[in-house]
Amino acid sequence: MLKLEGVTKNYGSKMAVSKLDLTIRPGEVFAFLGPNGAGKTTTIKMLVGLLRPTEGTVRIGGCDTATDPRRAAASLGYVPDEPFLYDKLSGREFLEFVARMHGLDPVLAARRIARESTRFSLDGFLDDLCESYSHGMRQRTVFASALLHDPAALIVDEPMVGLDPKSARLVKDLFRSLAAAGTTVFMSTHTLAVAEEIADRIGIVDHGKLKFLGTLDGLRRDLSLHHRSLEHLFLEMTDETNGAGAGEDGADGDGKPSASGAPLPGTTSPGATG
After folding, report:
1. If we measure between CA atoms, which residue out of 20, 2, 6, 3 comes closest to residue 56?
2. In the chain, what are the domain boundaries?
């Protein structure tokens, strides 16, 4: 459903993402992990069409986001790390606006707004002006807006920021139920416990390069660190001082991906900041 091929993004002389190859399947919950500045948000902005890659292609359901951005965007729901609403609209007016942007007729839009209002418990404040919303209320409203058109893929940057425990549980259950129905869920998160709990696969990016792609058990095997939490494994993978997982791009000495998609120990190449 989501496919990046040889994707590179430069900001002037600074390389934020380097030669990224990634395929996310329908019905998969994928967690995209990495330290600050690793290139995660840049990658997401290319996926949703806010940025164009310097090199390579990004495809959503087979549509190139650079050459066919409208069709690609129609398949996506997007929740950014900072929820944005129009302060002088009520939550309902904002959702109606988003529904019109997606071409939903008024009757269908009303049904979808009612559905998402129930799902995210918006009824208590949906007709208040957005300027009065707390961060958590904003986040729940943005989630609702991203799902109004039943997207084939949901892309979320830091989904748990500002959510109370009940809302966080709702979102985690939502991701699993969406995936069970065939929706692709791509999330970037610093909340490693969430990735460990619900992700089918994880990708770890550092200095703009993919350092691991696979399951949590696969990461444990590659680092020979059994029974360790994702937090320990993540720190081991991204700690440049200890040499563990020091390779880049999940490639061996010939530049070919290793069997698991993880970098082989002892391979090194200069990373790019991103």
Report:
1. 6
2. 1-75+160-274, 83-150
Q: What is the CATH code of the structural domain delimited by 1-75+160-274?
A: 3.40.50.300
Place of tokens 């991906």: 257
Strands 29-33 and 201-206: parallel
Return d(Cα 254, Cα 135) in angstroms, integer: 48
Instruction: Catalogue the long-range contacts made by 71-77 (C-beta closer than 8 Å, 24 or more residues apart).
Output: 73/48, 73/49, 74/102, 74/149, 75/1, 75/151, 75/152, 75/153, 76/47, 76/48, 76/151, 76/152, 76/153, 76/154, 76/155, 77/146, 77/147, 77/149, 77/151, 77/153, 77/154, 77/155
Threshold 0.85, pTM exceeds? no
Tokens in use for 224?
């020979």
Q: pLDDT by residue (tens digit) across 64-96?
A: 998 888 899 899 999 998 889 999 999 999 999
Instruction: Tell me the one-letter amino acid at 175.
Output: F
d(CA 212, CA 111): 42
Quick one: tokens of 102? 């997606």
Which residues in the chain show pLDDT less than 50? 240-274
